[in-house]
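User: For my dataset I need records formatted as: sequence, then structure tokens, nothing else. Please produce one.
Assistant:
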Amino acid sequence: MYQEKSIAVVVPAYNEAKLIEKTLVSIPGFVDRIIVVDDASKDETAGIVEALAQKDPKITLIRHSRNQGVGRAIISGYEKAIETNMDVTAVMAGDAQMDPNDLEAIVEPIANGSADYTKGNRLFHGNAWKMIPKYRYLGNAFLSLFTKIASGYWNIADSQSGYTAISLEAMLQLELPNIYKRYGMPNDLLIRLNSFDFRVKDVHIKPIYNIGEKSGIKLYSVIPRISWLLFRGFWRRLFFKYVIKDFHPLIFFYLLGVILFPSGLLSGIYLLLYRLIIGPVAMTSALFSVFLFVSGLQSLFFAMWFDMDYNKGLRVQ
């Protein structure tokens, strides 16, 4: 228990035989239930967890018959936490990359009722640039920028952090089976949380790397896939939140922006190529292209500002 709230920790694991025991034994004593979800590991992960569960009744093992992705593993853990009526459910990966000393800070805002969802932020740690592999830091920063726009949580960063906590109320409100099931799960979850006006807080945590973990993430394939996920989720959120639930004119600014801005950009490129290859272009054509470009950019900025202002009440200091 923590502040009279029951606490569960979901531990998604895939081929983590080397580090799963270190992860589980490090989880703080105030945690009431540890839910390990073995996503069809090919090594001895499940056996190690079963042996630990015989010694510690807090540990529960869920085994997937086939690999379904880290997102689906977390959702399985959430579903178990709902079954057992856990007030707060955190997530700690099975590779010991999440400092157990940070768990209290992750859980605290949910337990005291000031937030509905918290997520760790590794990017603002003093030595983050030195500790996190550069390609992962830059890839994470890129996805964080687009997640701000897609989710409406303009204050969040480190969107790919899996060190999170969520309230029972939020889990019950979300349609868990529909959440993205693989690496983009945190991004999709943020979009869905904003659609229901849940409060989200960033918690600064310490990044941990080079302890024997092995990442299977390939940014060249992950970034395009998550970018498409964010694009679809962005329009889904706008339609649900600003058309279905509560109409807001920012939807028109976004629509104008996505029509005018690319039109002006493409026409400007065409006119530039025409000028370089064929010859002079009409002044009116150039001015019209600039008008489209500037008007589209202004519309996008206005829409973002409206979205930021509308969601400022969901920001937790």
